[in-house]
Every structure is written in C-alpha cells, then in structure tokens.
Amino acid sequence: AKDLHHSCQWGFGIRWGDNTTDTGMQRLALSEEDKSVRDWFIQTMKDLKCEITVDEMGNIFAVRPGRRKDVPATFIGSHLDTQPTGGRYDGILGVLAGVEALKRMDEMGLETEGGVGVVNWTNEEGARFPVSMISSGVWAECIPLSKAHNLKEVPTVASLPTAASAPETMKSALQKIGYLGSVPCSYKTTPMAAHFELHIEQGPHLVSANQRVGVVAAVQAYRWFRLKVIGRDTHTGTTAFEHRADALYAFSRMMVRAREIAAARGCLASVGIIEAKPGSVNTVPGQVNFSLDIRGPETELVAEVEKELRADFDAIAAEEGAGIGKPCRVEWTLDFDSPAVKFHDDCIDCVQQSAHAVVADAPVAVPESLVRHIMSGAGHDSVFTSKRVPTSMIFVPCNDGLSHHPEEFCSADDCATGASVILQAVVRYDRK
Amino acid sequence: AKDLHHSCQWGFGIRWGDNTTDTGMQRLALSEEDKSVRDWFIQTMKDLKCEITVDEMGNIFAVRPGRRKDVPATFIGSHLDTQPTGGRYDGILGVLAGVEALKRMDEMGLETEGGVGVVNWTNEEGARFPVSMISSGVWAECIPLSKAHNLKEVPTVASLPTAASAPETMKSALQKIGYLGSVPCSYKTTPMAAHFELHIEQGPHLVSANQRVGVVAAVQAYRWFRLKVIGRDTHTGTTAFEHRADALYAFSRMMVRAREIAAARGCLASVGIIEAKPGSVNTVPGQVNFSLDIRGPETELVAEVEKELRADFDAIAAEEGAGIGKPCRVEWTLDFDSPAVKFHDDCIDCVQQSAHAVVADAPVAVPESLVRHIMSGAGHDSVFTSKRVPTSMIFVPCNDGLSHHPEEFCSADDCATGASVILQAVVRYDRK
Ligand SMILES: NC(=O)NCCC(=O)O
Ligand SMILES: NC(=O)NCCC(=O)O
Known about the structure:
2 copies of one chain form a homodimer. Chain A has helices at 2-6, 32-47, 92-108, 134-139, 145-150, 170-176, 205-208, 247-264, 299-319, 345-359, 381-385, 412-431; strands at 12-15, 23-25, 51-54, 60-64, 74-78, 116-120, 194-200, 213-219, 221-230, 234-235, 268-270, 274-277, 283-284, 287-296, 329-338, 341-342, 371-376, 391-396. By secondary structure, the first copy, chain A, is an alpha+beta fold. In chain A, strands 3, 4, 5, 6, 7, 8, 16, 17 and 18 form a 9-stranded mixed β-sheet that branches. In chain A, helix 3 (92-108) packs across helix 12 (412-431) and helix 10 (345-359) crosses helix 12. In chain A, 60% of the residues are buried. At the A-B interface, strand 10, helix 8, strand 12, strand 13 and strand 14 of A face strand 10, helix 8, strand 12, strand 13 and strand 14 of B. One N-(aminocarbonyl)-beta-alanine sits between chains B (90, 124-126, 132, 202, 378-380) and A (235, 237, 282). Chains A, B: Keywords: Hydrolase. Chains A, B: One of its GO terms (molecular function) is hydrolase activity, acting on carbon-nitrogen (but not peptide) bonds, in linear amidines.
C-alpha cells in the first residue's frame, strides 16, 4: 500500500481531501507522467532482478525466472494509465499487487516452476486513445498493430493542450516518451502460461453485500462508437425552429432515447465525449460528434440495443430539418467491439481457493460468504489475454462502487486482501 | 461588389462552390485575418483622405470631413469580423457599403454639412469573445471597458488552436494585432450625429415576400447565458442509470425542454457551445458547460422564458442523481442582456424615403410594396448606437434567409440596392 501511493506521485489529479493521498489521478496513457511511472516500474523490477521486455505497443513485461526455462511465466497484469479524472486504484492496484507479490516471493525465498511476471499494459483506459485495452488486444492479435499505432488521441482531453490542434497517434506518443519497443507485440513472442489480474470492482455489489473478494467469472459485452450528426449551421436569432436542422437538438433527443432503450433491455448506453461545431453562441450547430458506449450482460443484447438505436436515431435525424427539406443525417463508426467473455475454469478455481483461504480467519460464521462470483461491468486487459491463455480476475470492493472519479477509494485492508489472493492464486496455478 | 469580395481575401472559410467567391468566411475577431482586413480598411480610407481614429476597443472610425467642423459626422457602420463558419455578407456588406458611399460622394464631388464616417466595430459577432456587439456597447457606455478588456475567448473555436489551453482576453488579442488604440472608447470622445447600418436580413421575410428592402424599425430582445451542470464523474460500464448524476444526460433533457418552452411563447432558445468534462468515452461526464441564447420580440417574453427554464432546469437537475442522494446542480451566468430596441423615427424616415426612391423605377404597380418595415431577429451594433444617437438600419434579402453559414448569399443587385439606399439616407439625414 505504501508503494501503491508512492507510484501515484506521477500525475496527481483532483484533490478531494486533506491527506497527501486524498487526490485523484490524471495520468493519461503515454503522457510525461506515464513515462515517469514506467521508468519507476522498470527500475523497481530490475532491482528485483527481473528480465524486462518492452514491446511495440509499449507493454512492459518483467519476469522473475522460475526453475524451468522451457515454460512461459505466469503473469500478474494490469495498467498504470488513468482516466483524466481518475482515481488511485483503477489499474494501479493490479500492477502494484504484482510488484508486491514478487517482493514477497523474494522475502520468502520462494522458487516457482515457471517464472512469474508482472505486465503493465499500455492505454487500458481508452481515455486518451479511444480504444480500451488496445495493447493487450494487439498482443492477443485481435487488433492489428497498424490500427493501434495509427489511432489518434481524442481532442477533448483537457490536460494535453496539443490534442485539439495536432493530435498524436499512439505511435508518435510512444516514440515521444521512448517506449516504442522493438519486440513484436504478440502472445507468440511474449507468451504467458496464464494471466491473473487484481482490480477494484468499480461497481456496488461487493460493498453493498459486505463481501470482501470477488471471483470474476465473466465480463459483460460492450461496443464503442463514434457518431456524427450532420445538420446545417444557421443563425440562432433569425431562424425559426421549423427552419432548423439543429444537430445538437437532434443529439439531445438521441441521448434521452438511448437511455430509455438501453434501460428497457437491462443494458447501458452512455455518451462521454461530445463536440458541437462550429461552437459559437449564436450559430445553431451544424455538426455534432459524440461517443457512444453500449454495454450489456450478453453480446446479443448489446447488438439489439444498437439496432434499435440505429433506427431511432435515423428517425430523430429525419425529423430535424424536415421543414426545410434538409433533414439531419447520422453516421456511425464502430471503434471497438468486445463480446461477453467467460474466464478459464482453472484460473477461476485458483482464485476461488485462494480467496477462501485468505478470508478463512474472518470472524463470521461462514467465511466463504465473504466471497462472491461476479461478472465485470468494465473491460480489462484480462478480456484479451483470455483469448489466448487461461485467465481470471480478482475484485476487491471500492467505496460506493465509485470509479473513474478522483474519490475512488479502496481501503488498505482490501488492497492487502486482494494482493494476498493474487499471490496465492499464481502460486497455486504454478503448482498445477 | 468587387470591393466586397476583395475584402474577403483575408479569412477564406468553407468552400461550397466552384467560383472564386463561392467560399464562406472564417475571420474571427482580432485574428491575423482580421488584422489584415483592418489594415486594408485603414489604407483604403486614408486613400479617400479620411481621418482615422482607433479606440481602446479597436473600433476604427474613418471620417470624410464636411463643411462644418463643429458638428459630429453621420456614420455608416457595421463589422468585418465573422462567425467561424460565416458568410461573405454578414457585417462585411455594411462596412463595404460605407466605403462605396464615400467613393461615390468623392466621384460626385458631394459636399456635406457635417462629415460622413465609416466605422468598423470590433467583435460584433460575439463568436470569438462571447458577448455580441461588445465594442459598440463600450462606446455607448453600456458595457464597462474593463469587462470587455477582460473577456476571454471561447475554448471551442476550432481555428484558434491556443484557445483551449491559453485563452486570450480581448485586451491581449487587441495588443497582439496592434489594434489597442489609445483614444477612449466612448460616444463622448468619438461622437456621432447618427448611425446607419446596412445588413443582410439573415431571415426569410424579404425573400419569401419577394421584397427588396427592409426598413428596420426594431430589434428583438435577447439574453446570453453560460450554464454549468454539475453531476458526478463515474464509470460508464459499471454504473447503473439510477446511480448516475450524468451531467450530459441532464443537459439533453434541458435542451429538449428549452425548445418546447420557447416555442410555446413565440420565442427562440438555442445552444451553440457545449463542453462535457472530463471528455472520455468511458466516463459519465460530471460537468457540462453550455451557452444558452434566448430571444423574443419583447423583453418581457424573454424574461418569462428564462424564468420557466430556470425552474425546469432545476427540476431536471434534481431528478438526475436523486437515486444516490447526489443530484445534479445547475448554475447560470448572464453574459449579455439586450432588451428590445426601437429605432429613431427620423432615421427610419430617411431610410424609408430613400428606399422608396431607389425602388421607384421597378417594373411593378406599387414599387413601395417592395419595401417592408421589419423587426430584426439578430442583434447589430445599431442596437447600442441607438442608445446614444439617432439610428436605424436597412435590410436586403439573402438566399433562403440563411446566415452564419458559408453559403450565405446576397445578389450583387441587392447589395447595390442596399448601398444606394444607405448613401441616400445619410445624405438626407445630413440635410435635415
Ligand atoms: N477497468 C476499466 O475501467 N477499464 C476501462 C475499459 C472500460 O471502459 O471498461
Ligand atoms: N448580425 C449578427 O449576426 N449579429 C450577431 C449578434 C447576434 O447574435 O444577433
């Protein structure tokens, strides 16, 4: 836990309390702050005598060798980048738990069969470069390297003032901070025996049920889109409503409708980024660009919500501007598609046994009741590793289920519990 | 008309056709392009032997002396700045008609009693610095100089890449292009006998009634606000709708409601600028800033729409986030308040007589039917000059009533008609 907050010294975000650690984090992927924490991570792992690999996506793999050289290492992985108004736990906890695990193994003089590694995946958040888990996606060969390298940063990330005028690509940003490695980004070049990830839940279930550990068995489906509504610029003072093709008014109706439709199917639909052009008080916006994030427990449900929204958005667009025979149009671009995922039974078993072992001393009648099987609402790099190697995850509770917010909080106890569970899970898996 | 397009060489905007003049304009106030056209304007007026005054707001006054030195000049005025996706006529036509009028007077060897001046007012559009007509407002001593000098540019104007990171104030922008004059900006220091302004209608009435000249008798009321909706950042993938205080969803409901309420009272309500923070695909925006422009034919109606919207927006905000006991809040800031205006009867008479004279040769039974008394939907610098000196305006039709759009268009004939009317009106007024 000391190390966790230590690693947060690069990229302080919004302050919400009086203690030194009462700040959020703003460490966007491949920013200067990200470079600093990467340098720290590599130095720390070298001090632990790990072998370091940096691949073409800037993923950093640090391996503590095992007895056998002929089998790949078992990895603990997550990410050190954050949201623009992120917290100190999302991702960071997972990497730091890996560092902690290796330190413990050294302290105990523990020798493993295969090696044990820690991996920091690049741009998991998808906040600066708008495809989440992109670098584990390339590693899994689910996302082409060229697509990832050419992906541009979003124009609205306040902390990076060049974003609007001359957006960086992932490749140029990797070069800029010196993390464009030469090793191919692939599960073939940098293989793993398995991937385990510790993460805060980012949702309310553990905390409201008073449970301490989540054994993550699955991840819900999601799709990310960029949408463009095209209307007509015109004067706000002289143009009657019937004579407008107001792209922002059409957007507003779409957003209201999106919640309605998603809710009816037990799904979510959210808009995080919006840009209205030309952006003048007295010009009706002729163009609106926005992001749309649809999620649901089943891949099929997400597809259904998308289908309904496509029809409804078209209808809304057609109405706005119909009076002048110049209706709005709406265009969709799919940026990212992550079907629902089920994790590997072997890994789930290791996590579950470890969780039960760790909570065994709890002063409650049935300690196992402190452990819950859970589906993740958020995506994680484990989604992509699971396509290639046995994978599962461990969740620990966070206050109020709040995440992607500066006040995101996980108690030192819960962090420690999670770290113990992941260490045990890895050792268990190694012995299988 | 040649000069009109000539003056458009600084700040080409969006191209919409094949002819050299088939582009819009993007000449934001106090940009480099604005500096160029100002330099051109001053040189042109000096060539016409005018006396030039540049005041603390960068307003440029050029005066052709009359017989008498003891009376102030009668002015023809408008503005050379444009919207980010503006056209070639809005404002520009008015200044160029002034230049043309002075050239004609020279050609005819016409001597006037008082002088005749042309004024280019700074930042009439309110596009870059979000208070329209601000510099005629300071001149009329209706807006304090310090408020105007400290006004910041909007962060969203795409063409000025520094706007987001280090926004200029009007004062710093004036300095940057060398147009921070030393003469006090006041009707007391730079007095006028009267102010006439030629402008495209920017609305559909003249063109749909097939009329050629609008005698502008009044201007509708408007108010500009900046609003802030404050909710809570949270994860899009893990946060149920009931657990959200989604500032952008609340905004969407507000915008839908604003049209409803304004329409019910024969008013307009429009949003031109929006910014959602933090601006990440997978973070529910915890803050939305937007502009609101309310207009109506009577000052009281605008106040009523505002009052209803304040109540309704509060109610919408209160609902969003109620489930977590952290409802959204909404804050209003009034940036600009322009009550309805009636122009001066003497000026209206001069314009009307001139308009009738100019259309007298028209091949229709009642040429006067080509002239219409009209209320302006848009604000103009004449709104502020009218507070201090007799003022009125002349409108000419524009295609489709379209303005604040690159395809804004006024035929060469209509431009010429307008220029003739304003020249005659000024001469008539001078002789009174
Ligand atoms: N865990 C997390 O916040 N990942 C970002 C990807 C997502 O939006 O779910
Ligand atoms: N004429 C014109 O477009 N002026 C800008 C001020 C307004 O928004 O009405």
